[in-house]
Amino acid sequence: MLPNFDYTRPEDLKSAVKQLSSDGAVVHGGGTDLLGCLRDRIFNVNKLVSISGIQNLKGVKETADGGLRIGALTTITEIADHPVIQKQYAVLARAASEVASPQLRNQGTIGGNICQKPRCWYYRGDFDCLRKGGNRCFAPMGENQFHCILGSDSICFIVHPSDPAPALVALNAQAEIQGPKGKRSLALEKFHMPPGVDVTSETYLDPGEILTEIIIPPAPRGLRSAYRKVRTRRSWDFAIAGAALALQFDGDTVKNARVVLSGAAPVPWRSKPVEEAIIGKKLDEKTIADAAEASMQGAMPLKKNEYKIPLFKAVVFEELTKIAAQ
Hints:
Blueprint: E1 6-8, H1 13-19, E2 25-28, H2 34-39, E3 47-50, E4 60-62, E5 68-71, H3 76-81, H4 83-88, H5 90-97, H6 102-107, H7 110-114, H8 121-124, H9 164-170, E6 174-179, E7 182-187, E8 210-216, E9 223-230, E10 241-250, E11 253-262, E12 269-270, H10 272-278, H11 285-294, H12 308-324
Parallel strand pairs: 1-3, 2-3
Antiparallel strand pairs: 4-5, 5-8, 6-7, 6-8, 9-10, 10-11, 11-12
Helix pairs in contact: 5-9, 10-11, 11-12
């Protein structure tokens, strides 16, 4: 059963920010994650501030320089089906198409997807874990087969649940944010909070701030991109392992690369070792094999998720092989 709370639906962004200044106020967009959190009593809410009626936060528009501006209330389905995204930013279209089920893609928004809460069963269950203000993480000694192998800071072992977020980081996207102090921009790569900085927060959004838009720069000449998601029996579930790749080629040589892993870490995990292994080189069999091996540099698996290491290596190997053949 949902707890009692106040509900308001402001008509503009300024009013929404003002409403969020009250104690216990949270943003409501599509609600596909928020309502589940409320039913499970994961956090306390006194007021829902619905931004669903703010029209200028919806839709995909081309920018003057040839990039894209995506409103935070744009649905995942709109992104997956958008012809420009499919043609120029294949990694994002594919990542969006892999999210959950058709019904959830129709309702869920890109802003909510990027800001969603962890799916760790200890966080979602009746456990007083670190992320909820408790004094321990239960994953290291518990059921940890789906937890992270990178970036835990030996503090919290969640994996970031979003598919589009790694794709957007691979595309070097920017988050546009509105709050009590005005507007600001933040690279999406720096948007998510590592456990070592603050284990109780998932993003660098300050109190009262709203993610309003995502800006994707123009696709560079020679861009080839892809997203791969591995999940249990192709079910509508979260990634066990995945990779978003955005590679810029000059002829047959990789000129630039951004490779971001999903299902690996508490934040979308940019794999600099993979990038370093392929930039300035042709994607031949040895380069691809070396890059796949480098993808798990620094990995620290738990007792029940060691299988993720060969899985990630295989994902990176296969996706680089496919891109090389394009």
